[in-house]
Amino acid sequence: MDSLLFLCTRHIVAQRPLPALPDDLYPILFQAAFLDGRPLVLRDLVATWPFLELNFQRLVGHKVLFRAPNCNLCIEAVILAVVAQVQRELEVPRHQSSGSWLRVLDMTGVPDHLDGRSDWSSTKALARACVAVSRHQQELQRRRSKRHKGYSAATTAEAALRPPGVDVHADLVVDKNAYGILCEALQPGAASPLRLKCREFQPKYISAFEIVTLLECLDPSCLRRVDLHFICLRLVELLVILPHLSRFPELRSLNLQYSNLDMQHPTPESAIRIRCVARQLGMLSGLRDLNLRTTGLSGNLRQILCNLQAPLESLDLGHCSLLPTDLAFLSQSFHPAALKRLDLSGQDISQGLLEPLRLLLEETSASLLYLDLMECCMSDSHLAVLLPTLLRCSRLRVLGLFRNPLSTAALKDLLQKTLKLPDLHLVVYPIPLDCHTREPSEFDCYLFDESADEELLSAAEVEFSQLLANSRRTNLVWTDDPQGLEALDYFSL
């Protein structure tokens, strides 16, 4: 239910022009105008914004961005208002201006596509804004140079006092449509009064050389994540990109999911390239989160991670067809003591991985917060072996066991015993093996969900709910919906 203050602000933003308002009402007015889809009111608010920073996530909240009407138009209105401010600053000398100026527009976390429109993106909107400001600046300089050939010392001094402009912090998603305009937007660099500061960089379906072109233009002080999982890189392309990442000291997260490392059929040439990849990864001294999901590194984890300078805090090895030697290397390395997030989904633990996995969990028990063992062919007997070690993971918050052939009895035992883990708040469990119409011998993790017996499943869910109710663990969620596992990001740990 909305507060009385929020209801009043919704009434205020329903009229235009806005009355004179105290500064402390601006944040809630912004939220109300955005929630009600009023782009013109948002332009007015930004034009007189009394603070140095405007942070979308803080003002609006991530969920509101998805449900607000006209959200594309509202975001565009904010961007255009900032453009108008910067253009005024270029035209009016600093000593003649009055009031405070917005200095930081933080749009990190704003989805690139909203309202289901594929022809609009926040990345393109921001790039167009930067280009418009840069062209306006060039036009002003051209006019002034014609008007005043040979600047006086006083004129030069006045130009030096020009306001510093606005830094725009954003997550950039770059496809073929956005590439050209973004390149143009980034070219002026620090000289532009409207400066893009990329926090997370996600190229989509563009070439390795185009990615490098953009990386060379990005401000090195802000980038914290590079997500390459839409590129499906080959080894040779990966080696084109990796050397350019070492110029970003704040880079913490690198997603190489779906990259074709093809380490299962090595040639002398590919072995050399793998060593080069390892050396380049070792140059990323701030790297803490690495996603190698479905990269085909079976039996070669040591070769990839051997040059890292600092321990990883998050590692995704899902569907990598790992061998016992991979898990043995990992458990003996310096990574487990720091690991907070570990994804081993898709590994068949019945193929000699059970004991190496147990030893690895022993080593991570003091730090592990998130563990995904989805689709690991884990039976009741496997879980029985792992359970004592899982119970030593005292900080565990999230456990994923979806699509494993586990019985209702084994899951009830797991529930009762993991109640002693004080921080555990989400368990994604599989539909129990005995709640299916298929025979257990026909188990297939991808098809078995379709054969669930709804009556038997409902009865099992009632049992789980009753055990939770009796334990009074109202903060613990047991669900067979795997979407909760996808929501937890490394930067939210």
Produce a short descriptive summary:
The chain is α/β, with parallel strands linked by helices. The chain contains 19 helices and 13 strands.
Main attributes?
13 strands; 13-stranded parallel beta sheet; 2 domains; 493 residues; 42% helix; globular; alpha/beta
Helix content: 40-55%
The helix-and-strand class reads: alpha/beta
Task: Determine Rg (CA atoms, Å).
Answer: 27 Å
Distance between the termini: 30 Å
- The CATH superfamily of the largest domain turns out to be Ribonuclease Inhibitor
Unreliable stretches, pLDDT < 50, 5 or more residues?
Answer: none
Number of strands: 13
CATH topology of the largest domain: Leucine-rich repeat, LRR (right-handed beta-alpha superhelix)
CATH class of the largest domain: Alpha Beta
Helices, by number, come to 19
Mean pLDDT: 89
The largest β sheet comes out as: 13 strands, parallel
CATH architecture of the largest domain: Alpha-Beta Horseshoe
**Strand arrangement, major sheet:** 1-2-3-4-5-6-7-8-9-10-11-12-13
Shape annotation: globular
Subcellular location: Cytoplasm
Organism: Copsychus sechellarum
Keywords: Cytoplasm, Leucine-rich repeat, Repeat
Protein name: LRC14 protein
